[in-house]
């Protein structure tokens, strides 16, 4: 029995976790196993979360106001076209036309619909590396042949010449995140426009997952406004922390949206009439939710920046924390196998980080810092002790 098992990782829920969560086949499986460990061992410090805590108090207030006396006017049919009030609120927030927007159950649902519209079995989809592994899985599920292009540390920009060389006549879509997951780096608008121009020559679409983009202040214009072959995908899950609502959307040029609607005339069949009515209220008055994440990061980011600088100064990590969001993806000198490192950190120091292998970047770890600053400081103290040993 390895050290992780001996402390209860495999026994947290009978038959539910693999013997070693660091051998999980995907990042999602890793997270599920990690949550079981946390339930069984509350003393474990979780340092990989990439979002802020759910704003339950603010959500309760929205629901109470919307449904206490009578049924809210935002409780309308979502069949095919989605909740019109929520769509109009998204349009106002980002300077788009409602006709450019399709509501979905989340960013994953949006990408699934987009790939259905633009990719046929045997087509090629390019996916960033390092990156969030679910993107490649969605492309495979769509029947595509998946190839990778590199985002180069430390700023994780794309070498345009190398990117052009990866394109083929069968390339139909390119998937990219901005802010980048796992590094939190921001790709500037001119880079996105250059990528769109390059893939436009082979008739492909650039799908930009912007679920973390609202961490940037002031809020940037969606990538879809940069070129006619860019599709923006986003949701309320990450920045607002409202994963319970399952509200996402995609936006793009009228021709792209028309193609998606023709491919799926009934829209996203998983959309909830109730949760999307709540989402409409959130988007119409987002100030309390924006204040929530700004308060959390206003307290936790200084802790992360201070401790990251100390860890880098001690030679235990390499790389600066990004300017936006709550992810940090440093290199760990001397540890090319960060699965092994993460395993030892959990077993000996009760701190859980995400090894870079889950994102295609061995030798790095993903740290999340959208949490209580005291809990963050405690977890980073354990991390430093483990790395020092």
Description:
- The protein has a 7-stranded mixed sheet with strand order 2-8-7-6-5-3-4, with helices on both faces.
- Residues 1-18 have low confidence and may be disordered.
- It has helices at 3-6, 27-40, 56-67, 84-94, 107-118, 133-141, 160-166, 189-200, 254-263, 273-284, 287-313, 338-349, 373-388, and strands at 45-46, 101-104, 124-129, 145-150, 171-177, 205-209, 230-235, 248-251, 327-328, 351-352, 354-355, 365-368.
- The protein has 389 residues and is an alpha/beta fold.
- The chain has 2 domains: 3-55 and 289-388, Aspartate Aminotransferase, domain 1 (Alpha-Beta Complex); 73-284, 3-Layer(aba) Sandwich (Aspartate Aminotransferase, domain 2), CATH 3.40.640.10.
- Helix 5 crosses helix 6 (133-141), helix 5 (107-118) crosses helix 9 and helix 12 packs across helix 13 (373-388).
- It contains 13 helices and 12 strands.
- The relative contact order is 0.17.
Regions with pLDDT < 50 over 5+ consecutive residues?
Answer: 1-18
Q: Give the biggest sheet.
A: 7 strands, mixed
CATH-level-2 architecture of the largest domain = 3-Layer(aba) Sandwich
Distance between the amino and carboxyl termini: 23 Å
- Helical content class: 40-55%
Q: From the alpha carbons, calculate the radius of gyration and give it in angstroms.
A: 21 Å
The SSE string, one letter per element, is: HHEHHEHEHEHEHEEEHHHEHEEEH
User: What is the tally of helical segments?
Assistant: 13
Question: How are the SSEs placed, and which strands pair?
Answer:
Elements: H1 3-6, H2 27-40, E1 45-46, H3 56-67, H4 84-94, E2 101-104, H5 107-118, E3 124-129, H6 133-141, E4 145-150, H7 160-166, E5 171-177, H8 189-200, E6 205-209, E7 230-235, E8 248-251, H9 254-263, H10 273-284, H11 287-313, E9 327-328, H12 338-349, E10 351-352, E11 354-355, E12 365-368, H13 373-388
Parallel strand pairs: 1-10, 3-4, 3-5, 5-6, 6-7
Antiparallel strand pairs: 2-8, 7-8, 9-12, 11-12
